Amino acid sequence: MNSELSGKLDAALTSGDLLQSSHDNITELLSSGNPIYEASVAELCERQEWTELNNRFFKKLAFGTGGLRGRSIGEIVTAAERGSAADGERPEFPCVGTSSLNYYNITRATLGLVRQLVKSYSGEGRPSLALARDTRYFGREFADCVTKVATENGCDVHIFPIPRSTPHLSFAVRHLGTTSGIVLTASHNPPHDNGYKVYGSDGAQIVEPEASRIIAEVNAVDGESYDVLPADQQGQIYELGEDMDEAYMARLESLLLDPGLVKSQSDLKIVFTNIHGTGGTIAPQMLRRLGFHCDTVAEQDTEDGAFPTVKSPNPENAEALQMGIDQAEASGADLVIGTDPDCDRMGVVVRDGSGKMTLITGNQIGSLMAYYRLLAFTRQGILNDENKGNAIVVKTFVTTELQTAIGAHFGVGVVNTLTGFKYIGAKLRKYENQIPADLRANYRDLSDEESRDLRLKHSKFFVFGGEESYGYLGSDFLRDKDGNGAVVMFAEVAAYAKSRKETVVELLDQLYCEHGVYLEGQHAETLTGADGAAQIQKLAQSYVDEPPTEMDGAGVLRIRDFANENYVDEEGDEIPKEKMVFVDLDDGRAFAVRPSGTEPKIKYYIYYRPQPGHSEVLIPEQLPSAKAIAQESFDSLKSAIVADMRKRLG
């Protein structure tokens, strides 16, 4: 760094324009001598864009619930980053900064991961990793960077050369038996973001204690430079192609529980959109392969990291599915299904009894799939009075309690985990490991039926798992939420409803009549940059330091502070510490507060549900009134929570 730039940075630190952490991280990054780094910092410094510099440098990216995630394109794009790209095009180089997703952080993360893999590896040959990317900006370049760093440091890489989904990567890790896996994605975030998710040898995202070991190795990395191993000690590169696609699709077929039902409802029409992501590779093929009628939204079939036809590539939003809705209205289709860029999340729009296209929530989607799978397994005799105690539904604490009521109806247990599908993956690892070692030696090669028999006899048969945030899993041949599998499972639910001459909405109403009305929603407060990060942490801590005693006229029945108190789940397993406060009110309503692990947001999860101990079995004629009461009570609680939040923010 030249002395003039150094002087300006020192002056900004003295004046308070630049945070100490930003100053330290800028100094460290510029010590590499990379001219793009220095030119970008110098331009922002010259323009006195201190907020932008603080946002880029106030921290180093660390593993959260989704690994690394950050901006790969800055709010302000410097001339050095723009490079040869024209205005409106993707910059030639990613955003410079220690809190951004760029070559600096990709290199550090990969070095730390590979060094930990090499250190802990006890098998033959070299450790290996599977690598995939979605359609986001810089995906190909970041994949090349990962491959180069990993192989030059003694790790084999099995790479999908073209975009593939996150669940496909999880499956590949298990199918190939690699030591680890990486997928480059920022899920449904805006186009300027990208991310880096790490998987263990079981195909699930890393959890403790392995996460801390990797993080320690990453933190020990000094800059981007490293010594390249001799050629004969370097890893090899293997490309994954159609064989891996076919192996994955063959396992997805097992998610269909009643093929005859699908054949009998061949007039069910589905419109599918991948919203410019990876879902178009597998999902429509699977639907047609299984006998469903599936059309796609041609304008959104293109894989494009700009996601040009939507404001946000998030299938939980009606706007992202609007082109599919328009096509369904024109064609008379029964439902619209959409997946996010890396195809781990799925959203749907279905027709109600009046023919109106209706967006249903992630909680409702998951409840319908859990119900149908429990019903089908019970009717087929796979679950019965002798073994249903060894079946399990896994959900997160912030996912609807309607699924708990459904599980109880079928005599099947429901276990709660923290937010993040890695915790559901950890449960699946536990259930697999509970099978006697000699019987699970070839577990990954067993059919779903064979492995199910083992789990029902020796551990827990995983019927379904899900998060309210539109992530679902119906089997354990992979260990992350699976948008492709969810498409198959939900299409079967729609076929089941149609076989009963009902809509999906009417099937959901049936569940409300049996169990009472459950209504859930969110408020997410976005607070960006260095200042926003500090505000989020301060706001979250306020619920610990000053816990509410009442909310919207209801007294507080119980507060669970998951960061500072010790809890065990329904199976007696210790719950890891996480910043989340869950508040139960004495009228049955509840809310939870949690800083997001992947976005600059603090999230409020809000619940209307029947009071504990109060049976609310309804007849259909009572349902409209019960829904109206629920909505009014929910809206009132949400308003009170947001008002209280504003007060806490000052």
Please provide the count of β strands. 21
CA gyration radius, whole angstroms: 25 Å
- CATH topology grouping of the largest domain: Alpha-D-Glucose-1,6-Bisphosphate, Chain A, domain 3
User: What is the distance, rounded to the nearest whole angstrom, between the alpha carbons of the first and last residues?
Assistant: 40 Å
CATH architecture group name of the largest domain: 3-Layer(aba) Sandwich
Strand percent estimate: 15-25%
Point out poorly predicted stretches.
none
Describe this structure in a few short sentences.
The protein is of the alpha/beta class. 40% of the residues lie in helices and 17% in strands.
List the helices and strands and how they pair.
Layout: H1 3-15, H2 20-30, H3 35-46, H4 50-57, E1 68-71, H5 79-82, H6 103-120, E2 128-133, H7 139-152, E3 156-159, H8 166-176, E4 180-184, E5 193-199, H9 210-219, E6 237-239, H10 242-252, H11 259-264, E7 269-273, H12 283-289, E8 293-296, H13 322-331, E9 335-339, E10 346-351, E11 357-360, H14 362-379, E12 391-396, H15 402-410, E13 413-417, H16 421-433, H17 448-458, E14 461-467, E15 471-473, H18 483-499, H19 504-515, E16 519-526, H20 529-545, E17 550-551, E18 554-561, E19 581-585, E20 590-595, E21 601-608, H21 623-649
Parallel strand pairs: 2-3, 2-4, 3-6, 7-8, 7-9, 12-13, 12-14
Antiparallel strand pairs: 1-5, 4-5, 9-10, 10-11, 14-15, 16-21, 17-18, 18-19, 19-20, 20-21
Helix pairs in contact: 2-4, 6-7, 6-9, 8-10, 14-15, 14-18
